[in-house]
Design goal:
The chain has helices at about 10-20, 40-50, 65-80; strands at about 1-5, 30, 55-60. It is α/β, with parallel strands linked by helices.
Length: about 90
């Protein structure tokens, strides 16, 4: 599972992804925040990334030319390969 959360209300889901699955099969948790606002950025860092609840933090931009979009497409492709799905060139197209 890949989970994208934007705040402290998502912490229980982040914990489930890390602890409820066998080692090596944990889900991926990513955090999103509004980078233009300093308080949400600070909270995202101190409450989500620093304690290891999420793999990384990003602005909520998922388009073809956005960094987070590329990361998500790669994560989906990697997870698909792990469960035996054939690679598709249409991912992210």
């Amino acid at each position: 599972m890949i989970y994208i959360g934007d705040g402290l209300t998502d912490v229980p889901c982040f914990s489930v992804l890390q602890k409820a699955q066998p080692k090596g099969k944990e889900g991926l948790a990513f955090g999103v925040f509004k980078p233009a606002q300093s308080e949400p950025a600070k909270n995202a860092w101190t409450k989500l990334l620093a304690p290891g609840r999420v793999k990384s933090l990003h602005s909520p931009r998922y388009g073809k030319n956005d960094d987070f979009g590329a990361i998500l497409r790669s994560a989906l492709a990697e997870r698909g390969l792990k469960i035996g799905l054939a690679p598709q060139t249409a991912i992210g197209a």
